# Entry
Amino acid sequence: MTAMKILRGLETNDATGPEANTVARLGFLEWAFLQTGSATPDAARAALRTIAMKAPNSEAACAFVGFLEEATRMVYRPVRRRGRSQRLH
# Structure
């Protein structure tokens, strides 16, 4: 399912607070698991580009966009030897 379809569905959801966050997290997981490739930071950036023209209104839709924005960041794990970090994804 594309990010735009998920966003449209979340726009109709009237959940607020923790419930909106939970619904948005489920939408994000649906997006991540149904990717035709891997759910990489580049895929998250592409999803954000497709929904850039639509400003989310509902709390759940805003949280979903936030999860996508978090997914664009590379995550590194410190490596003890030689003082270098290792990329996780």
Summary: Helices lie at 3-11, 17-33, 41-50, 59-71. The first strand starts at residue 76 and ends at 78. The chain has a mean pLDDT of 86.
